[in-house]
Amino acid sequence: MSTPTWRVRQPALTRSGLTLYNMGLPLLLLTLLSLALPDFRQLQNAQNFTGQLATPVLAALGQLFVALVAGIDLSVGSVVSLAGCIIATQPDALSGICLALLMGGLVGLINGCGVAYARVHPLVMTLSTATFLQGLAYLILPIPGGQIAAPLVQLANGNMLGLPYAVLWCAAAVLAVATLLYHSRIGLHLFATGGNPHSAYLNGVSVARMVVLAYVLCSLMAVVAGIYLTARVSAADPTMGASIALESVAAVALGGISLTGGIGSVSGVVLGAVSLGLMANGLNLFGVSPFFQGVLTGLLLLTAVSLQRRRHIGL
Amino acid sequence: MQPTSHRADGVPAPLQVALKQVSKRFGQTAALSDVSLQGVGGSIHAITGENGAGKSTLMKLLAGVYRPDSGSLSLNGRDLHLASPAQARAAGISTVFQELALAPNLSAAESLALGREPARFGLLKHRAMHDAAAAVLSQVGLQLDSHRLCGSLSIAEQQLLEIAKGIAADAHIFIFDEPTAALNRAETDRLEQLIKALAAQGKLIFYISHRLEEIFRFCDTVTILKDGQLVCTKPITELTRDSLINLTVGRQIQSLFPPRSNTVAVTPALEVRQLQLYPDKPAVRFTLRRGEIVGIAGMEGQGQRELMRTLAGEHRSVHKDVWHSSTPGSASPLAQDGSSQATVRRGLALIPEDRKGEGLYLSMPVQDNLMLGLLRRLGLTRRAPRDTALLQQLMQRMQLRGAAGVAVGALSGGNQQKVMLGRWLASGADTLLIEQPTRGVDVGAKYEIYQLLREYVAQGGAVLTVSGDLLELIGLCDRILVMRQGEIVAQIDAADATEEKLIALALQDLPATSSPIAEEALN
Prior knowledge:
The complex is a heterodimer. By secondary structure, chain A is mostly helical. Chain A has one domain (20-29, 38-307). In chain A, 70% of the residues lie in helices and 1% in strands. Chain A has helices spanning 20-36, 43-68, 76-89, 93-116, 122-140, 150-157, 165-183, 185-195, 197-202, 207-233, 244-254, 266-286, 290-308; strands at 159-160, 163-164. The two termini of chain A are 19 Å apart. The model of chain A is unreliable at 1-12 and 310-315 (pLDDT under 50). By secondary structure, chain B is of the alpha/beta class. Helix content of chain B is 32%, strand content 24%. Chain B is built from 17 helices and 22 strands. The longest helix of chain B is centred in the middle third of the chain and has 16 residues, at 185-200. Chain B is globular and about 75 Å long. Chain A binds chain B through residues 1-6, 10, 12-15, 179, 183-189, 191-192, 194-196, 198-205, 262-263, 313-314, and chain B through 65, 84-86, 89, 95, 97, 99, 101-106, 110, 114-117, 119, 122-124, 126, 149, 151-152, 154-156, 182-184, 187, 278, 280-281, 299-302, 485-486, 510-511, 513-514.
């Protein structure tokens, strides 16, 4: 339809999905918390905070790939748990990591093929694998524990000149994902697939393969998150990743990424995860009960998402 | 214009593409049967025919979207097997699809490069991509920042971008599918220049359109399709306007429309005394009387849809003073913020243009879809009547072939449209608001629908209809209102109306495209 001059023009379209809300929320929380809580300003807390933050950031970066192709991956949490259990039960760290990555790739492949080729709805597909993998994690490691190699533990908990390794883990992941999304053909094809799959197909993009790839990348990132988490707490637990699936989706939504595909950014994911983390950290320091924390986080999510979502065309 | 490639030079034999006896079926319907077609480089070749004649299907075979069930394609004498759009593109065939195929979240440069991005080790060369985009955009005369996202471009810009994509890919066959459907006159002129420039370079252009004016202006050869079959291919010089129409329709148009009634309509059904659709536009005023069919003409998106939807109670208006009367003298105003339920209860029904999305319950059988109209007259607690006699009567009146138990989704477009119409006739609605009464409907069913509407108004109903098909408005209606930029700018008796008159009225003073195209870039 032509756009007659007398019609109200749509607001400018962005591909990042970032708005003032996404960027302002973490800043606002940071300011509020550092003003209100002396404890928050301690270096100890900052290190603690980044340590806690790394797992959701890593998992949410994976979730970003899936969200960009208009999917959702709820198996992320179970993949984190299972990766932890594999590492804790393997005799040496290297074989554990390799096995875990292999498992992640396979899970992503199954999820992706189910969604792209068998046309199962992503919610159903990934919820099924999530349940399956959770069971598997219980079978491998019925009771929490296990042995984690000391160097691996050091890699997650140490710091370099006061800079926690957790930050390095995140930085490396952000760099890798940003390079892939913004500077590679694969990234462009992912955006095209999410923006208009039919158009992408007409232009010679193998849409189904892109969807599969997104799920594989998502599961691999979840494995990385699982490796980090296991090393950080130097033990595994079959339910250790339980909350991460929804956390990663929440971070993605808070970061302005459209769940209908094609719109999102790496910085949005980081900002979203930081907002969620700050909320949890602050409420902890305030001594708010964990149950009530859930209530507040849910409200925050709903508010933030309803403030931004309709700004995008088609949402 | 610069030659786009070395290929254009030094190849003496003109390009030749041929489709030999291609057929394509979709389920029950034969979209194409045994169609043969030949195109030569340098020619602008029109493909025309009615809705559903198979024009788009034919071109989608060349575009690699569909594969023919039988028959073959060849390019310069060699067999051409296109398994995907990507392969068609690689073979040098570029298509500007009717449903524009741009991802809204990609920049102009990315869209142009998509599928063949400049990259090293899988990493994009952004600079090279934008440089190439700038070069090709200036070739089509589109002044545009190559970083702009496609979703923010106007339809005309998107179309030029699609053409630029073909040039960038060094295509030598261009397919345009109804490219001017959403363009105004100035934009159409620019498109004409561009297409002619391409043809002058020896490219082959297939131009799908049912607009006579454009076919005579742009094209040198015309292929006419009817009901999926080839009627003929002729040079434009051998055709006149009338002979082309007769070949397309295959029968005299006059016979397609039932005769208008002789009695003068007096009783008002819907008095639109003042209806302000936009805050900065004057109000719309007109009266729809019992016994008449009034049509609304205009270019796409001039407020026709808003007018219909506001009358139906779906949209809110700035100011609404509309009176509706079911029986003479019983006029009462529609509520300012009337809901669509309230409007339907008064006997005012909207038949939406998107029958699959808004009109019908595709998975439900015909009888249930029809019965929904009757249910309107019953309370919530009453059971649906299983009154097959009534249903039979209705189906007979609608000439709905096929069993009552068939899911509506399995019917042809024409029969679906009749089910929708039948539902509202069964509901006892006294005034119908119809958007695009016969879009995607075959000729036979069109005729039946026109008959039904005439019968309906002869029995005291009133119909207000919007249609993009001017001939339909002229043939079907008693009066035609012309809308432009949210206003009714003219009203003419359908008996005196011609396509030219209506187009002239609809186009006057329409603003040109927001980003003017440099004329000099086209030479």
